Amino acid sequence: MKEIFGNLWDFYKKPGFQVCITTNGFIKNNGRAVMGRGSAREAVDRIPDVDILLAEHIRSFGNAVGFLTTDPPYKLLVFPVKHNWWEMGNMNLILASAHQLFDISTRTPEVIYILGRPGCNNGRLEWNGEDGVRNLISFLPDNVHVITRKVVI
Hints:
The chain is α/β, with parallel strands linked by helices.
């Protein structure tokens, strides 16, 4: 795993890169997945009906890592960090998602996977520290880049 600064969306549709958005597993009564904050919300703002695609993925595969075909041949990789939108990030779910991403990324070492800090903004988890998400997912290979926006003071 490498850490980088920048904007996740600068890599969307860029050859050789795969954008990963953090998600939850909640589907609303209208059949759309909840994608109200963070990179999931940004996806809704950019990609028509991506919340329907995520809901279909959740119904088919559960709250698990997977690809959504958003604008063929482009894809988003969903990386679950919560079961329900109102919860804190779930470390066990993040670990399971990281193992799934590990499997995918090691099979495709030519692809760079771009992932925001999972569970650390709206999931309210800490990135650094002994019990932080950084240590939890540090086993990810170097073709997984964890991105954060650089804050200018």
